[in-house]
Amino acid sequence: MTHFVNSTADPIVNVEHLAFSFGEGDLCKQILFDITFNVFPGEIVLLTGPSGSGKTTILTLVGGLRQVKTGALTVLGTDFRTASVADLVRTRRQIGFIFQAHNLLDFLSARDNVAMAMQLHPEVTATESRERVSELLEMVGLKDRMDYYPAKLSGGQRQRVAIARALVGRPQLVLADEPTAALDSHSGREVVELLQRLATDHGAAILMVTHDNRVLNVADRIIEMEDGRIRQPENAL
Amino acid sequence: MRSSWQVAWKQLSHSKVKLIVATAGVVVAVLLMLVQLGFLNAAYDSSLAVPKRVTADLVVLSPQSPTFATPTQFARRMLYRLPAHPAVAGVQAIYLGTGRWKNPWDKSERQILVYGLGAGENMLQIPGFADAVDQLQQPDMGLFDRRSRPTFGPVSDALAKGERVDVEVNRRKITIAACTEIGVTLGVDGNLFVTDTNFLRLFPRIPGSIDLGLIRLKPDVDPAKARDELVRWCGNDLRILTKAEFIAFEKHFLDTGAPINFIFGLGTAVGFFIGFVIVYQILYTEVSTHLPQFATLKAIGFTDNYLLRLVMQESLILAVLGYLPGTLLSWCVYQIAARETQLPMALTMFRLTSVLGLTITMCIFSAAMAMRKLRAADPADIF
To answer: Model ipTM?
Structure first.
């Protein structure tokens, strides 16, 4: 890889001996066993593995969407074991989420969907926020469709709006779940390059779940999951 | 897109049909509430119009009369005893009867309330009575209330044209000398004022029985004190009230003896409920169809409070959107109702603000109910 990974800095994501299970008592089903890994600024880490291996659960834990029960998890300097709900919400505002389902608001245009995320960053002026919205939509190739409603956009275009929404707040960490699954190879490639640029230019860390072989070559590291465990020793540490 | 109000408005206005339906729901609610409350007030105002025209210091009724409008008769001599008391300056006997008025134009018959005003100082303020008193003292003359329902015939128009108006009341020819303006109630369609002598010509009855007595006290006499002394004189044979007590007595009858409170109160409640259900339904659908999107917003860092505020703002937008046309429509209904019923229908500032308050409360209730669904939006479910 040509870009710079700062592995001497504090990791953006620090996972140690993380375990997770759903349900209680007899119905308790353990999903994750003894997961340990770090993600450093500027790094692109892929999570792969068969479905049901626990990749998405890791994303929801790192994203602060589920409560950590066993093990240690620190994201952007916040210890998720002890964090209050308000702390979690504050941390989530610094994370860019790209979901498999784009979940755009159907009553807002592409521009407004992206602009809405800027309401989470009141410190940015209205003018700058407008500029960033246009800039990002241009970057994802939707310059001519900014005022279209999601219903008038193709699946790939909607996914790109969702990506713009995730990136407009200049997140330090991007969590992406199959961001290219709904895209053709050309736009899939563009999205990946966009994420790569974000990592290079802004030192953001990217943790991405993917099955897409076409994007494997942008990864700094690949974590392979199987049955809730990490299969191979990590190759870049 | 810097404010949640903008988001709320865009969500509401995205589907024009939904917006129109929701607004129409609020409009109907506002219309029903304003019109029902308007009728309720009109019923009160009109029924209290005549009691408020009493200028006497004390009012005398039979203890059996539930209201002055449906009186039980009592002996005139009991009233005429009262001037013997040093505090009493004078008394006036009032006679009341429901007569059959034959409309001279289309020959139809209507019931009309006839007031017979006794001699002496007139303590019931009837505009125009004093001016026409010389004519009214002639046999078979009457003063007609021009705000009686139009079914009594174009009496005041004919008088204005200088025509002579002879009508038939209780099979007796009565000549209308002039018109006054009093107003009708839900139960009374028209009013006719005559002297006591003419009244007894129209309504043969046991001599010396009257329906209402009015008392003028000497200056500087405290009405409440005088009433207490007079009550001691009369025992249980008469009900003696001060002017304020008389109005309160009539109001109490309307509160308890007539179903108007219940009927129009129920109408108002139905309006409130219709608006509540429609707004709730619209907001609930909006919330439940957008649950995954709202969960996404929560995931990326929007708080529960933000989403609650969004729904609340949508309900407030609907309240305002529906209130304005609803008020305008109500105003039209008031005009039509006032013309058709001759009831006093006034869109008062107080009623406008109360209904605005009710509308906002209604919408907030709907939003609060619809919000319960928001808790189901779990950001962990969307990956």
So the answer is: 0.87
